[in-house]
Amino acid sequence: MVDKYNYYKNKLDPMKYRAGRQSMGTSLTGVGYLWAFLSMISMGLSATGFYLPFWLQGTMPGVENNRTSILVTFGPFRRCTYPRIDPDTQALQIIEECGRYTTFTDIPSFSWQLVTILVGTGCALSMLVAFTAMFSCCVRDVISQTLARVGGGLQLIAGLLIGGGCVLYPNGWNSWEVQQACGGLSAAYQIGTCSFSWAYYLTIAGAATSILCTCLSCHASKEKYYGSYGM
């Protein structure tokens, strides 16, 4: 009877079950913490660069206060400084504010509409992986090797989408709004008198960091060990 008691005691020892559950868990490696950190950096760079309308800058002739020119900046779906006809006086006004286009079809170039979709989708994927990676820094058993690699794959897709959007963006320089700000000399992949602005480079940096995170994700999680029941 005693032997049978000891047998079942050893079999049902709660410490063994606890150890089994712990061994089934996964956690980030040192590389994994770096991956999570860079994932947040990538997301921040891409999302900030995408939202801010400082991809391209040019000038418009000043019509008020004896100003010879006014700075104009563009993003894929937003711009700063735009002309407007005053409804009362019918005079041309220059509104020195930043805002998005009223509707998607108001974006002045089909290329820029496509850029908005590509970069927006890439930023959404980057955000999904980044928050999951940061959550795994605080909670155990969130990221396994397989999930880390899936996340890395999503980051590769995000980086390619964002980078592709940046490459496609100059194709929209033939729109009349851009030509108006670039001395009438701009065309597809011809910048005229305009120049790139800092948010464009910020977005490219976000895409490059996202692709770098793809490599780190392969070593982000420790090996997964299985309990005695092979679960």
Describe this structure in words.
The chain is α+β, with helices and mostly antiparallel strands and 231 residues long. It has a single domain, classed as Butyryl-CoA Dehydrogenase, subunit A, domain 3 (Up-down Bundle), CATH 1.20.140.150. Helices cover 53% and strands 13% of the residues. Strands 4-3-2-1-5 form a 5-stranded antiparallel sheet. A hairpin with a 3-residue loop joins strand 2 and strand 3. The longest helix is centred in the middle third of the chain and has 29 residues. It starts with a helix and ends in a 14-residue tail after the last helix. 35% of the residues are buried. InterPro entries: LHFPL (IPR019372).
Summary?
Helix 3 packs antiparallel against helix 4 (110-138) and helix 3 runs antiparallel to helix 7 (198-217). The protein is built from seven helices and five strands; from the N terminus they run H-H-H-E-E-E-E-H-H-H-E-H.
Structural class: alpha+beta
Low-confidence spans: 15-26, 225-231
Strand content: 5-15%
What is the number of beta strands? 5
Main sheet: strands, sense, barrel: 5 strands, antiparallel
Q: Which CATH class? A: Mainly Alpha
Specify the overall morphology: elongated
- Rg for CA atoms: 27 Å
Assembly type of the shown chains?
A: single chain
Order of strands side by side in the largest beta sheet?
A: 4-3-2-1-5
Examine the coordinates and then state which fold CATH places here, giving the name of the CATH topology: Butyryl-CoA Dehydrogenase, subunit A, domain 3
Domain unit count: 1
User: What is the H/E order?
Assistant: HHHEEEEHHHEH
Q: What is the average per-residue confidence, as pLDDT, rounded to a whole number?
A: 85
Helix-residue proportion: 40-55%
Number of helices: 7
CATH second-level architecture: Up-down Bundle
Distance between the termini: 31 Å
